């Protein structure tokens, strides 16, 4: 099976590439903006016609789109998450390759959820920010394209390579700095937020399964379990061997500040570290998100395998290398 992977150098794309390369039945071609891509092509500015000619030459059976942007203004997010998807869909419609499309969406398309609930694929999307809006627009383009296509709505990916700007990436970096300088107290913000954290390697397995399946439409990829960032911080501290106190500063709307971890050290040992985003919920998802993952189980035969502690251990291993 010949697979064309778009965005192979991104956070998710790297693990998807590794998973596909481990399958001897897959012939992989990577297309992207970086020099190490097999073919250089910018989906946000390239023409559908140019991509069509490439598809006709390579003739893939599956196209996997991991490309996109998570940061930037509305215009930039629209270029990379919406316009780029329109280019892919139009090129596939024009091409004679008949490839199946696996598009990576995200949980930000749903927006805030009712605390305690599990979000299923039939939930009405109400994205709470420009990122979710741009990704939802890309999903709608795929669903309306008439192509053989599936959209995987990935919840909160974690594990090795977690971006430093993500909540767990910022947390690991703050802890690394505290341990490096011998600080006995770490002050953090927004620890009451709850997310469905799914390991990036499990996401790659889901992409592989989706490329082999006949399933279409939207499929959630998560664990089905929401975890407080406060609890993830406590696990990370245990994994890291950090014996200081973790104090919560501004927990965001409707969330009570609290204290977790070891007892408060002496005043001379205290140095405040703030590891917070400018907004309480920068992903536009509110205080709670949890995936209903029954569709992935039933239609893809996929279940998550890697627990959060293992994911956090891998995040910490990378952070510790910078000490």
Automatic annotation (TrEMBL):
InterPro entries according to UniProt: Epimerase_deHydtase, Lipid_A_modif_metabolic_enz, NAD(P)-bd_dom_sf
Cleaved signal peptide residues: none
Domain NAD-dependent epimerase/dehydratase: 3-222
CDD domains reported in the protein's UniProt record: SDR_e
Gene3D superfamilies tied to this protein: NAD(P)-binding Rossmann-like Domain (3.40.50.720)
Protein name: NAD-dependent epimerase/dehydratase family protein
Organism: Streptomyces noboritoensis
